[in-house]
Amino acid sequence: MMLENLIWGYVYPNESEIQWSILIVLYPYITGLVAGAFIASSLYHVFGKNEIKPVARFALLTALSFLLVAMMPLLVHLGRPERGIEIMFTPHVTSAMSGFGYIFSFYLTIVVLEIWLSFREDIVKKALSSHGWKELLYSSLALFSFDISEKTLHDDEKFAKKLAIIGIPSAAFLHGYVGFIFGGIKANPWWSTPLMPIIFLMSAIVSGIALLILLYIVAMKIRKHAIDHKCLQSLAHYLWIFLILDVTLELLEIISMKYASREDIDIINRLLSDKIGFTFWGVQLTLGILIPFILLLMVSLIKKRDTLKMIMISISCIFVVIGVFAMRWNVVIGGQEISKSLSGTLTYVPVFFSQEGVLPAIIIFILPFIILRVVTSILPPWKDMEEETQKLN
Amino acid sequence: MQPHLKRAFTLLALVIIAFILVRSLVVPGSFGQYGWYRGDSVNELRNLTVNYAESTSCGGENCHKIIYDVWVKDRHKTVNCETCHGPAEKHVLNPRETLTPANDTREYCGKCHFKQIARPELFPQIDPDTHGQDLRCVYCHNPHKPWFV
Fold it and tell me: Is any Cβ of chain B less than 8 angstroms from the Cβ of A152?
């Protein structure tokens, strides 16, 4: 396509190429899913919501699988992935970005410790009952310490709870930080708002819970087990609450921008009506929030009819997951589609086969599901889900 | 503390110590000497060979005075001699070291003058498909005095 067709109004020469591509859209999306899944699991681990118990450990494994690939979009975007570690070797205190490696490592440690403690009993039992390489694998996972007396497990649980209490603020920090980086860019009116970290956090929780619900339903269908509807509807209920918080903040930002009508309002209006009109009003707000909101409201109003409710929850979750991706897209791409001159717009055209293209983004997004498959085969969380529900047929 | 937790924290401590060790090996010694960069790089950059001599050294010594005087008064005065003629430090030090011929291809002029939306409207730009019949620009335009056709 000719460059002329992609540009409107006055733009600076160095803006004609959009630097932050779909990979940078994927990065906050993946970290959001991590934070969301972790917070969903802490509903049980910290807040003692027993109805969430069937998915609590599964949520931790989901968080870990996505956390392990969270850095990948950035490394591929960087082009020289081996230099990525330098930001950890010589971090500058004035740079929000340079803190990421540390926040990431801290959070990874907490998630791994949390998973280790909550699976320790299973690990030790497997180590004691298996032979050969499996024995070695599980023994090393147990760090060759096989004490699973009642008292030890009780202490472990108490310690895991403490960890999860640290984990919640660090999950919030991990994702709020991503929002902070965008919110701190003062030259860009679409990004520069102190609300950004908390908007990112809320949409992260929303997308994480929705993904967890979908993975739970899919896992149970594959394993041919009945779904624990109490757990599912409880998760859907939390999804609904966080959805309300999320939409309140997202609309608050737009409304205050429109009401204040600062010098950048013309370009913001153009962005919202033209450039990202469809992905913002259509996908992010209508498909991703309004429809799931109504469906989930109906779920909480309808009595009985569990299968219908499950279908409605599944549809809501699919829409939410798509809607949150659109939200990341609208922030990352939308912000770059307005010129710093505030009187021109640019257009991002995604490429499929390229280092910055759609293909690597798809590959990176598939990876966590493969990792989750591997991790769940080493540390199966299914026992929790299948305890209370009987096997179908 | 339970023995398994002790082991876990020892492992974590080992990872952190390993990171600190690797960091101390990998980060150059002179990092942070003057600022948030490798101090030695200042000396390394200073010791790089000089390639460019500046336009004044072409016309200043009475070597290329005539063409220099034409160029310096005209619109291309912001484009240095060495932009087209190439780095000239060696030639200035020793006139027997001749320069490679100036780059006068159509694409090279086009780097500034082919039409592009991001350029100021009044900047001289041409559409390479319709202007000049694929001839080299210097066939009609004098690069030292561009409006002289």
Answer: yes
Q: How far apart are CA A179 and CA A96, in angstroms?
A: 11
> Quick check: B4 and A16 CB within 8 A?
no
| pTM for the structure as a whole | 0.85
pLDDT, tens only, B79-111: 999 999 999 999 999 989 998 899 889 999 999
CA atoms of A96 and A240, how far apart (whole Å):
32
Q: Residues of A with CB below 8 A from B7's CB?
A: 143-145
Q: Name the residue of chain B whose CA is nearest to A8's CA.
A: B117
Query: B118–A113: do the CB atoms touch at under 8 Å?
Result: no
pLDDT in tens, A188-244: 999 999 999 999 999 999 999 999 999 999 999 998 888 888 899 999 999 999 999
| CATH T-level assignment (fold) for domain A18-386 | Formate dehydrogenase/DMSO reductase fold (1.20.1630)
Buried b (16+ CB within 10 A) or exposed e, A80-115: eeeeeeebbebbeeeeeeebbbebbeebbebbebbb
Interatomic CA distance for residues A8 and A24, integer angstroms: 24
Rounded to the nearest angstrom, the minimum Cα separation between A388 and chain B is 31
Separation between Cα atoms, residue A70 and residue A135, nearest integer Å: 31
Of B3, B23, B26, the CB nearest to A147: B3
d(Cα A206, Cα A319) in Å, to the nearest integer?
A: 11
ipTM of this model?
Answer: 0.82
Please tell me the distance from the alpha carbon of residue A296 to that of residue B98, in angstroms, as a whole number: 79
> Where along chain A do its domains lie?
18-386
Considering only CB atoms, which chain A residues are within 8 Å of B8?
113, 116, 143
Task: Report the distance separating Cα B3 and Cα A155, nearest Å.
Answer: 12
φ, ψ for residue B141 (rounded to 5)? -100, 140
Residues 81-110 of A with CB under 8 A from B: 88-90, 92, 109
Residue A355, C-beta contacts closer than 8 angstroms, at least 6 positions apart: A76, A79
